Amino acid sequence: MSIAPGSLQLENVSFAIGERTLVRDVSLSVAPGEMIGLIGPNGAGKSSLLRTIYRTNRPSSGRVTVNGENIWQRPASWVARHVGAVLQDMPAEFPLTVRDVIAMGRSAHKRLLEADSAHDRALIEAAIDLLQLRPLETRAFRTLSGGERQRTLVARALVQQPAVLVLDEPTNHLDIHHQLQLLRFVRSLGITVVAALHDLNLAAMFCDRIMMLHQGEMIATGAPEAVLTEENLTNIFRIEATLVRNPRTNTIWVMPA
Ligand SMILES: Nc1ncnc2c1ncn2[C@@H]1O[C@H](COP(=O)(O)OP(=O)(O)OP(=O)(O)O)[C@@H](O)[C@H]1O
């Protein structure tokens, strides 16, 4: 499956609800094909920031552009064709099969009730194979395990062929094998990704750059070793940690003490 990666720009993005500012003046420029890890303690504003990218939280100031287009000045249907998202705890109570859920990813590219074209079907088949969902294809989505659901939702996002893929804690519910498999897989697609990740070592392993958020503000952004410093881990995550290199991957490794 080939997806043309897009560019993403956050320009001084803030987001407030009433008096409360959840995201404050965040800027980030993501090149096509880059993978950005968003890290920060609970309540730092990661999900709130991601929602400004998939057009759920309208910034109170600043701009979000995808391929140079301000997403808040484009119709929702344009954004649905250009930004894909895998979110936490998607509702699962609808009586759809795995294949139905994946096929829903094509809806942004079609008119209401338009039948799947040969192109749609080819993408759906490819996604089922890529995410190894063939044995589950006809199962009801609600009967899946957490990890199987997550793979289905990634497949659904991929058939959308999004210029930018937003992942909110995509490794939630996954065992360590599937965490690695999912991130390796997403990475191998060469698409543009912004992913909120709680596992700092996985973020360092898979992301080109990391952005650290705290109380809605960007504390640091850059290469994993520039952001995952003892100082940032102490000040922001409130942990004592030793930093080493993973001898196999040579990526920075946080060892809490
Ligand atoms: N609709 C809302 N109304 C008021 N406060 C909100 C709303 N949505 C989020 N918040 C608050 O904004 C802050 C940031 O929340 P957010 O979910 O963005 O953080 P997060 O970094 O994704 O956290 P976690 O790691 O716990 O998932 C939290 O204090 C949260 O309670």
TrEMBL record:
Residue ranges occupied by any ABC transporter domain in the UniProt entry: 8-240
SMART domains the UniProt entry points to: AAA
InterPro entries listed in its UniProt record: AAA+_ATPase, ABC_transporter-like_ATP-bd, P-loop_NTPase
MF (Gene Ontology): ATP binding; ATP hydrolysis activity
Record SUPFAM superfamilies: P-loop containing nucleoside triphosphate hydrolases
Gene3D superfamilies: P-loop containing nucleotide triphosphate hydrolases (3.40.50.300)
Keywords: ATP-binding, Nucleotide-binding, Transport
Pfam families: ABC_tran
CDD domains named among the record's database cross-references: ABC_Iron-Siderophores_B12_Hemin (cd03214)
PANTHER family (alphabetical): ABC TRANSPORTER ATP-BINDING PROTEIN (PTHR42794:SF2), HEMIN IMPORT ATP-BINDING PROTEIN HMUV (PTHR42794)
Stated family: Belongs to the ABC transporter superfamily.
Name of the protein: ABC transporter ATP-binding protein
Taxonomic placement: Bacteria, Pseudomonadati, Pseudomonadota, Alphaproteobacteria, Hyphomicrobiales
